[in-house]
UniProtKB/TrEMBL annotation:
Residues 214-277 form the GHMP kinase C-terminal domain. Catalyzes the phosphorylation of the position 2 hydroxy group of 4-diphosphocytidyl-2C-methyl-D-erythritol. Pathway: Isoprenoid biosynthesis; isopentenyl diphosphate biosynthesis via DXP pathway; isopentenyl diphosphate from 1-deoxy-D-xylulose 5-phosphate: step 3/6. NCBIfam families: ispE (TIGR00154), PRK14608.1 (NF011202). The gene is ispE. Its EC number is 2.7.1.148. This is 4-diphosphocytidyl-2-C-methyl-D-erythritol kinase.
Amino acid sequence: MGETITQTAPAKINLALHVTHRREDGYHDLESLIVFAHVSDDLEAETADDDSLTISGPFSDGLGAGPSNLVLRAVAAFRDRWPALSPRGLKLHLVKNLPVAAGIGGGSADAAAALRIMAALAPEPVPVPDLADLAAGLGADVPACLLSRPLVARGVGEILSPLPEFPQLYVTLVNPKVPVATADVFRRLRAHDNYPLPALPSPLTRPAQLGLWLSETRNDLQPPAVKLVPEIGLLVEELAETQGCMLARMSGSGATVFGLFGSEGQAHEAANQLRRLHPDHWAAAAPLLLPTVGAH
């Protein structure tokens, strides 16, 4: 038996997402306030002779475990960059608890967990900026997922400003189990040069401060996503009406919708309400990960 190591891959939530510029290469510059929740995929690795991946869990159906899977791509990219620091092989097992193509960074979080595993198994420290640079090559959300803590992301997602403090809040996540392709949402985006995020209060320690700040922000991808999947708009309305909900909005490019709460009980009650309304949807309630609490 080889050495076994486990990493969580927490759900990523874009509390606010402004699209500020369409670049000549076709990509978009964004500004986003990103947080992570205590609900995750789980990635387990055991040293072995060769790399392999198996997948289980409620959202494992239809996910390929071949070389194109982001977990194996992350491992391969790490090996290419640091062959001398890489284990001979890894027997990987992914428990897929988060919905796929859902705007909560599932695949990106899994790739980031794989990079953290490779770095943890390396015989000497891997430079963090180099690991972040490698993460950016795997996907726009992977650098943020590598940190899994409250931060502001700019550029295409590679310029990160981790927040030193953040209020304790709880989130309810609801997904209609309709996958949404990010490219389809961007194709329907009308304005590509929107104003950036307002300056965050400092220190940001109280839920009310965050609530006021969020009222000045939006998710620019929500209107085009609602056109693609009208159910998203309905879920935002239903979550907004639950008791104690500070904000209801879509995360990322959808279709997951979140409600933000100051109380854990209210977040769980909101999840129960949405489950009763939509028994076929996925719903979860969890605390947000704080800067002072390690996500892994």
